[in-house]
Amino acid sequence: MKYNKSFLGVGWKFPPEFDKREKSVVLVSEEQDIRESLFILLSTRPGERMMQPDYGCNLSLLNFESISDALVNRARQIIHKAVLHYEARIQLDEVKIVERDDLEGKLVFQLEYTIRKTNKRNNIVYPYYLLEGTEIVDMPK
Question: Which of 23, 26, 102, 121 has its CA 20 to 30 A from that of 17?
Answer without folding.
Answer: 121
